[in-house]
Amino acid sequence: MDAFTHKGENTGMVFAIEEFSTFDGPGVRTTVFLKGCPLRCLWCHNPEGQRFDREAARNINTCIGCGLCSDGIRLENIPHCPAQALRLCGETYTAPGLAGRLMKNAAILKDCEGGITFSGGEPLGQAEFLFECLEILRPKLHCAVQTSGYCSTEKFREMLKKTDFVLYDLKIIDGQEHVNFTGQSNGFVLENFGQLCRSTVPYRVRVPLIPGVTDNPENIAAIAGFMRKNGAVSVDVLPYNKMAGGKYPMVGRSYTTVFDGKEERTEYMNIFAAEGIAVNIL
Question: How would you class 163 by CB atoms within 10 Å of its CB: exposed for 0-12, middle for 13-18, buried for 19 or more?
Fold first, then answer.
């Protein structure tokens, strides 16, 4: 059966597709952002990817403040916006339909030793759709998944069978602090990281440096020790983007927490180095 006449039983919700990315895995890649995430990280850069259903998004640069959205940014307002400042955020695809779109740049991606990366949101929040996409694409292109690790161990184990590469976020090791800042326990995150490290799937660890939250020496030391214990040898650290809150008004929400602080990158690198872990600053 041809790849694009695949059974296509699953549909998924995508909120963005970014072409020619160089930060989401090996080579040059197309990154697919699947909608929906079970976490609510207070510093989230993609608020439009948090909810699993489609929603309206407002371009605050073209909005004329007509009052149409005074009671909320709603889907039904989109066709009535006089400035055309509203758009639909979230597009439904079948797995074969999405694969067909992504394969249009297959030759370029192969030439650049890249492929497809599924991100989010949390891509494992749409696990069945993700798995079907990987089954179609992987024979033709290198496939990667960027994940928080927050999903059942069964789903995570199944994902490891279907992908070529994993980008894995580690944020906070202390369980209560993880709940405080993401809304969920990190039990699955820590357990699934162990699964990843014991597997044969290549991976990269990513740590976002959030001032006053993840970037304190105690948390960095805990992450470094946890990585060493599991055999991980390298980490990408992502500096905090102070413009992270700019998207929230787009979907009618407030970015209530401002994170500010000085990043002591040398100190972090020394902490990781003490555990034999190489650091790459993105």
Answer: buried
Instruction: Tell me the per-residue pLDDT of 211-263, one tens digit each, with 9 for 90 and over.
Output: 889 988 999 999 999 999 999 999 999 988 777 788 888 898 888 776 766 65
Structure token pair of residue 6: 């695949």
For residue 169, tell me if it sits in a domain: yes
**The domain containing residue 178 runs over which residues?**
3-54+90-281
Q: Note the pLDDT tens digit of each residue in 60-101.
A: 999 999 999 999 999 999 999 999 999 999 999 999 999 999
Of 245, 249, 247, the closest CA to residue 257 belongs to 245
Long-range contacts, stretch 270-273, CB < 8 angstroms, 24+ apart: 271/217, 271/220, 271/221, 271/224, 272/220, 272/224, 272/235
Domain count, the chain: 1
Mean residue pLDDT of the chain comes to 92
If one counts every other C-beta atom within 10 angstroms of the C-beta of residue 61, the result is 7
Answer yes or no: is 49 within a domain: yes
The tokens describing 190, both together, are: 């820590």
CATH number of the domain at 254, please: 3.20.20.70
Q: Is 69 a domain residue?
A: no
What tokens were used for 267? Answer: 């100190």
Per-residue pLDDT at 191 exceeds 60 = yes
- For 161, what's the count of Cα atoms within 13 Å in the CB-facing half-sphere? 10
